[in-house]
Amino acid sequence: MKKIYVIVLVMIVAGIALLINAAGDTSTYSTFEDAARSGGKVKIAGQLAKDKEMHYDPQKDPNYFTFYLTDTEGNERKVVLLREKPQDFEMSEQIVLTGKMKGDEFVATEMLMKCPSKYKDEEIYINAEKENS
Amino acid sequence: MEGIPYLNEHLWPGRIGHAGILLAFTAAILSAFSYFMSVQRADYADEAATWKKIGRGAFLGHALGVFTVVGMLFYVMIREYTEYQYVWAHVSDDLPLKYIFSAFWEGQEGSFLLWMFWHVVLGGLLVASAKNWESPVLAVLMLIEVFISIMILGIYIGEVRIGSNPTLLLRNTMDAPIFANADYLSLIKGNGLNPLLQNYWMTIHPPTLFLGFASTAVPFAFAIAGLWKKDFEGWIKPALPWALFSGMILGTGILMGGAWAYEALSFGGYWAWDPVENMSLVPWLTLLAGIHTHLVAKSTGYSIRSTFFFYIISFVLVLYSTYMTRSGVLGDTSAHAFTEMGLETQLVLFVLTFLLIGLVLLIARFRQIPEPKPEESLVSKEFWLFIGSLVLLFSALLITASTSLPVFNKIMESFNPAYVGRVITDPIPHYNKYQLWIGIFIGLLSGGVQFLRFREMNWAGNSAKFFLHTGVTLALSGALTWLCTRWINAYAWQYVLLLFAGCFTLIANLDYIITFLRGRLKVGGSVLAHIGFGMMIVGILASGLNKRFVSINTFVMDGLIEGGDSERLKNNVLLFKGVPMQMAGYEVTYVSDTLDNVTRTYTVNYQKKDESGKVLEEFDLHPNILYDKSFTKIAASNPDTKQYLHKDIFTHISSLPQVEMDMEFRKKREDSLRYQPHSLRLGQTYSFTDTVLLRDRDTFVLKQYSLRLEEITREATHPDYKAQQGDLTAGAVISVKRDDDDSTYTVTPMVILRGQLVYYFPSQINELSARVRLHPDVFDQIYTPEESLTYKEFTFKQGQIVDFEGLQLRFDGFNPKAEHPALQKEESDLAVGARMSVLTPQGGQFQAQPVFFIRDNTPFNLKDEVENLGLHLRFLSLDPKTETIQLMAARKLPQEDFPAAIELATNSLRSDYIVMEAIEFPGINLFWLGSTLMMLGLGLSMTHRIGQLYKKERA
Predict the structure, then answer these.
(1) Segment 47-106 of chain A within 8 Å of chain B by CB
(2) What ipTM was predicted for this assembly?
(3) How many CB pairs under 8 A join A and B?
């Protein structure tokens, strides 16, 4: 057999092994219950509970922000984000958190927010309303 | 809404633009078909030549179409014709002209046009230079153009929309009641460009990246042409400069994206393994693999098959990345994919078509592609170049596989709706841990391969040299690695190994360029590129591994969160204005901030002091924040970086007091303040007691305050106040003291009357969390109210003197060009001033000029006042016949001593701080220098190869 083929074969095997290994780096979006059960680092997707209190007091601690999140199963938990409060946070449609449960709180180290697109047609409608009134 | 005669619309650019799209699309089809026929009928020279002529003509037509659409779109954007949807979505009247380019390619349609534009430019160059390769290469290129033009076609087949047309009118793209108004244009405003994209990198990064993407089509087209015409070796030479060009430009485009991220975004770094970044990197990796096998193929005839494969896969990966970033499949896994536009099916077809064309051709012809019989020797340079290419491919496949997880999820969900999609929990470490090994392999290979030169020449005579060079290089690399580990504290063995690989390739290639090429850089492009690669590796490790947070607040109360790893994340510090804070060896002070339009720029001062307090080093950084155009929210936060040769200090504002970030909250907050009114006479001190909430303790304490009115004035200023004609202003100087604070704070609040509205300009005393404002009653006290005046009428002739309340009034004549602070002249106005002199018994003389004017047949008069005398004059009318004027006068001295109304709120929040993140990146310049060298090396090789092509021709 040609040595090129040997090398390619080795690479393919290595690649498959790596990908199988990499499957361990992935996870599904968890719920608070899963997070409490596993105790490990998970990703949670959910929505901001807009009626609940948000707390960020940078004068006390600029890296401490709390809010409530409703996960995909509808459970609501307090979330502690160890970062500054992001801009436009109230506008977020969906939030993805990385972190783990500590007691009753979910301590998140990272957060991704999905905000409504800026191409909103709102302005058109607002102006139209002004026009009608 | 048909039949409404809309006002002020400009319809012709849209019509021309639309015609341009249709022309570009049809001409591309014709050109692709004609060029195709010209290849198929190659045996019949005349026919082939005719087809080729048609192909060229159609290519020109296509070029004309593309330039027309691009031109028209730019035209309507520059003129801000918001009747066009694309203009409305991407331009606003406050967008500086320099960002029109960024706005042009912010949207999908604009970036598709940019891509097509580059294909046309490259196509033109190919028509001029490709000779007998013109027909097959252009046939492929124009087929690609057909597919891209479909993306901006915007036609409907049944209910399905094909492509998105950028020349559509806004009123045709959405249904809103506003379009019932014929003058709707006066009511709408453009949305403008995302402030994050308002950065000069965004002017040059997208065109460079798209030129990179577009240029991958050229080696692809050459490869397809070679397979198609069964001329497996003829394309190798003419295609090489194109491949090198593509590698250089695509690489530069990716780097510029990194530079933009580093400079404009606040995540603190140039690379985040974001899917969009990954998918632009992957085709570049396979392209580089292709360039390496291409070089092997050119010099030995080996690896032609793999070169075909690499160029096909590079272009298909470009298409795949287009699909990933534009179809919406990435969803919430990427921070900067395009917004979804319903092009998914089209994009999938685009990718599959070219994947199939490439693979089917390659498989069909595979056996016919020549491959020299004796296998490459294990010690030949070419063999290891090939291995290197395989490693690059391997890297590309790993990245693609991980990045494609959302695509995989989507496919699984279509088979099984209950399937729950998976995500990579921690993307950055995930990618890093695999790519680390790729870096090690590539580093060792690109260094080691240089020593095979001794083997190739005359092994017996050179073995001593081989051992000398290899030994010295290994020793030097080891020493350099050791030094680097000390510098950047990289002690994990994997990192040491990677560092060694980087140092090794750096030194091995330096050795090559010095002792073998003897400094002849002209032929040393590849060596230069590999030196760059080595540096880049060291730079990545230094800046990434050892990035150090400067902004660590050691005074933050601990115990809020238990556990060690959370400490690492406390990267933000709070700085009060003017209060220095020690952090990581620096004394950092938030000095000031200035507001210019919607940009607030902060000055943050860094000082490094020695033990005696002497300043060793000092610099200012200016991070800024951008408010959105309606000034209600923060739209972007731009970092600023202090650059040293050996490190960068990166600083950005991560948060601000909420009253500074959210104007709605600011208003609410202002409304909720408990203002207590106090009446004060000039020079009087007033003391009172108020309850103050103690922070963090939910208890109140009593505090003694004292207020003193120092001065009261009509001419007042305030940092937030912008003077307008007709404003009535009042200001005061007030000192405030609290018993538990030694300092006395002096503030200058102001209040204005504009029309019928009162505007407050309060002053904040952050140290006391107090806010002082002036009550509008103060107007009555410093301006005499009109109703308290008793006027007396007089008739004057020019020069006449009249006695009034102990003063002498003299009418000196008319002023036909009268001006008055409250008069905003209109064209039809007839305005005239009466020049009056006022003489006091003490011999003083004052001038006054009341104004009389007629607007729309109605007479008006404007008062003038001699403030010192309390004299008010009004010019009522004039009689041209007798040359007399009617004037009325009143006199009332202003109150010398009156109580001014001052209000103080003691529950105001502090607003004089910033929350800041500062990161030190050591050795980041090595990354930039190394990566730039790589691109220079590719460019050098390209010019060298072009030179070779033409030299051969002349010979």
Answers:
(1) 56, 58-64, 80, 82-85, 87-88, 94, 96, 98, 102
(2) 0.79
(3) 147
Chain A residues with beta carbon closer than 8 angstroms to that of B169: none
Burial label, B767 (beta-carbon count in 10 A; 0-12, 13-18, 19+) = middle
CA distance A96 to chain B (A): 8
Counting Cα atoms < 13 Å in the Cβ hemisphere of A99 gives 26
Distances from the Cα of B668 to the Cαs of A49, B152, B485, in angstroms?
22, 46, 55
Write out chain B residues lying below 8 Å of A19, CB-based. Answer: 398, 401
Higher-confidence residue: B285 or A116?
B285
For residue B851, the model assigns a pLDDT of 85
Residue of A nearest to B419 (CA): A28
Flag whether residue B390 sits within 8 Å of chain A, measured between CB atoms: yes
Q: Do you know the residue count of chain A?
A: 133
- Strand-pair category, A105-114 with A76-81: parallel
| Chain B (189-208) residues lying within 8 Å, Cβ to Cβ, of chain A | 189, 191, 194
When CB atoms are compared, the residue of B181, B570, B573 closest to A82 is B570
B702 lies in the same domain as B810: no
Contact B178 A128 (CB under 8 A): yes
Gap between the Cα atoms of B305 and B226, Å rounded: 11
Model confidence pLDDT, tens digit, residues A65-112: 899 998 888 888 899 888 788 777 777 777 888 888 888 888 888 787
**Nearest-CA residue of chain B relative to A19?**
B398
Q: Which residue has the higher pLDDT, A82 or B146?
A: B146
- What is residue B339's DSSP assignment? P
Residue B43 within any structural domain of the chain: yes
The verdict on B233 and B108 lying in the same domain is: no
Cα-Cα-Cα-Cα torsion B94, B96, B97, B103, nearest 10 degrees, comes to -80
Say yes or no for a CB contact (<8 Å) between A28 and B420: yes
Contact B110, B166 (CB under 8 A): yes
**End-of-domain residue from the set B158, B193, B228:** B193
Pinpoint the alpha helices (H) of B339-404. 344-365, 381-403
Question: Does residue B151 share a domain with residue B35?
Answer: yes
Please state, rounded to an integer, the average pLDDT across all residues of chain B: 86
Does the pLDDT value for residue B696 go beyond 50?
Answer: no
Residue of A18, A26, A83 with shortest CB distance to B423 = A26
Of B339, B423, B917, Cβ closest to residue A27: B423
Q: From the CA of A32, how many Å to the nearest CA of chain B? A: 16
Residue B870 has pLDDT above 60, yes or no: yes
Characterize B318-331 residue by residue with b for buried, 16 or more Cβ atoms within 10 angstroms of its Cβ, and e for exposed: bbbbbbbbbbbbbb
Q: Where are the beta strands (DSSP E) in B86-159?
A: 155-157
- Classify B672 as helix, strand or coil: coil
* B387 chain-A contacts, CB cut-off 8 A: 7
Give the separation between CA B887 and CA B852, rounded to whole angstroms.
10
Q: Give pLDDT tens digits for B592-609.
A: 888 887 788 999 999 988
One-letter amino acid at B23 equals L
Residue in B521, B514, B440, B438 with CA at minimum distance from that of residue B472: B514
Mapped onto helix, strand or coil, the DSSP state of residue B945 is helix
State which residues form the domain around B45.
Answer: 1-193
Which residues, other chains included, contact B571 with Cβ-Cβ below 8 Å and sequence gap of 6+?
A63, A83, B549, B551, B552, B917, B919
Most confident segment among A54-58, B244-248, B495-499, B861-865: B244-248
Q: Answer yes or no: do B739 and B874 share one domain.
A: no
Region of poorest pLDDT, from B265-269, B317-321, B902-906 = B265-269
Nearest to A124 among B178, B556, B634 (CB): B178
Q: Is B412 on the interface with A (CB under 8 A)?
A: no
Query: Which domains, from first to last, does chain A contain?
Result: 28-117 (2.40.50.140)
Which of B362, B383, B404 corresponds to the end of one domain? B383
